[in-house]
Fold this sequence. Notes:
alpha+beta; globular; about 10% strand; five-stranded mixed beta sheet
Amino acid sequence: MKRHLPIVIIVVVLVAALGLLWFLLRSSRQTANTNANANAASPGTEPPGAEPPHVRGNKSAPVTLEEFADFQCPTCGAYYPELKKIEAEFGDRLRVIFRERPLVPPHEHALMAAQAAEAAGLQGRFWEMHDKLYENQKAWTEAKDLVPLFVDYARQIGLDTDRFMKDINGEAVAVRIFQDGKRAHALGIDSTPTFFVNGKEAKDDQWKPEGLRAMINQALQEAGK
């Protein structure tokens, strides 16, 4: 028995070592799975964008239409009157949120236009500048010097133009555009306009006016409205 004792001890140690190894590997897998689940992005966890957001319409509306757009984007410009029609059709049942997504490049003036809109927003006139930029898109897009035009738009909508010029390159404006950009990046948005209806992206032909209307009506049905 004494002669076999060392062998028995070795076997016991090996069995114990194998058991410990199995336990460690199992724990490692469980930890990895837990970490993977924790790191997986779940719906609604993306950055919120600039706060407070630019909202038009009933802030308590059952349906929220979130638009990511570029003021120089020709498609966004063509869509602008259609979106105004949609807002009028749905009235208090719809609120619209605008998010900055200047595509630079290829739109060389898009960033400055976004800055102009956000600078106007600091004086409570974001939507007035938003409308001016889309209604006059061709004029400022083709201009060599945007500053006189944007200052004129600021004057027309009743802004303090000195403050406007100071804010246009200020930190507050830059932060808002950056925050909207973070949200756009997290959502994988690389084209404009891109729409979300109550958090659901308008994909394929849904982004077109009739597709967007259908999504809004569906969201109203789901909300019991």
